[in-house]
Write a structure and sequence with these properties.
The protein has 297 residues and is of the alpha+beta class. The protein has two domains: 103 residues, Arc Repressor Mutant, subunit A, CATH 1.10.10; 163 residues, Multidrug-efflux Transporter 1 Regulator Bmrr, Chain A (Alpha-Beta Barrel), CATH 3.20.80.10. α1 packs across α3. 37% of the residues lie in helices and 24% in strands. The radius of gyration is 24 Å and the shape is elongated.
Length: 297
């Protein structure tokens, strides 16, 4: 049992869906039964599981229907009605869209089909006031960020310097940039410091384009098109309260994941934190950590 409210809400929704899978389930009903707003439940469910709430409901219903076609003597009409479909035709369309064949054809064939099992949340790293979701592989096009380069030593990392300079940039220095491409998204980009082995360079910035005007003392960095592993930290607090502790937790998990699943033990530079203020509020935030991987398998 978790004390993390984000995981608890998602877990409760999954259990409610399982217990009432043969009912007419809606996002409003699931949210009301779990005493959470529909919009918030839909947001955290999609962020944590990677699947929208109602897509998951439909997949679970159809998977149960598929099992009924194999294991029961119920007619296709009876199965459709049992799982909340008003008409056999609507059930058949949904089934064919999901599995590529009609219910009647499936029952009389030896063709297999992939079912959607009950969602397993064991892939989540449950932290005290946040969680780390299952990493994803993503490809990003080339882009530019404009901001300020800082030198951060190993000792300064443990004294909260990365988050201090990140907050200072986003809530103050960022406002000096004229016409940024996306002013609500913060980038914290880490580069190797070739001059000092015991430190790294940390670039605080926002995305810019050819229309952006940077103030004196600000720089521009070009980020090439690349493949990344994206790690997502989700907190039940505002983005302004992200601390070095949270960065350390996601960096530690990154190192564990890269070594265990990809055999990479050396430090990879060119990684960056990404925080979109528009998806955060007083009780919720997301921080994405993008680690470049090139053409890794």
């Amino acid at each position: 049992m978790t004390n993390n409210p984000i995981i608890a809400y998602v877990e409760s929704a999954i259990n409610y869906i399982e217990e009432n899978i043969d009912q007419a389930l809606t996002a409003d009903l699931i949210a009301t039964e779990n005493m959470i707003s529909k919009s918030h439940l839909q947001r955290i469910f999609k962020t944590v599981t990677g699947q929208s709430l109602m897509d998951y409901v439909r997949s679970r219903k159809l998977s149960r229907c598929l099992v009924e076609l194999i294991d029961s003597d119920l007619t296709v009409v009876d199965i459709a009605l049992k799982y909340g479909y008003d008409y056999e035709q609507s059930f058949s369309r949904a089934f064919k869209s999901k599995f590529g064949i009609s219910p009647h054809f499936f029952r009389n064939s030896t063709i297999g089909a992939n079912i959607t099992p009950k969602m397993d949340l064991s892939f989540i790293i449950d932290l005290k006031d946040s969680l780390i979701a299952k990493p994803k592989f993503v490809k990003l096009p080339a882009f530019q960020i404009g901001g300020i380069t800082h030198r951060v030593t190993i000792k300064e990392k443990f004294k909260n310097k990365p988050t201090d300079i990140g907050h200072e940039f986003f809530y103050n220095k960022r406002l000096l940039i004229d016409k940024p491409k996306n002013p609500t998204v913060y980038y914290g980009y880490t580069m190797e410091d070739f001059e000092r082995e015991e430190s790294s360079k940390y670039f605080t910035g926002v995305e810019i384009d050819e229309h952006t005007i940077l103030p004196e003392g600000f720089q521009c960095i070009d980020i090439a098109e690349n493949n990344y592993i994206m790690f997502k930290l989700i907190g039940n607090f505002p983005a302004s309260e992200i601390t070095w502790k949270h960065l350390d937790e996601i960096w530690t998990f990154r190192d564990f994941y890269m070594e265990k699943y990809h055999g990479i033990t050396e430090r990879i530079y060119g990684y960056f934190e990404y925080i979109d203020e528009t998806v955060c509020d007083d009780n919720y935030c997301e921080l994405d950590l993008y680690v470049p991987i090139g053409n890794i398998n």
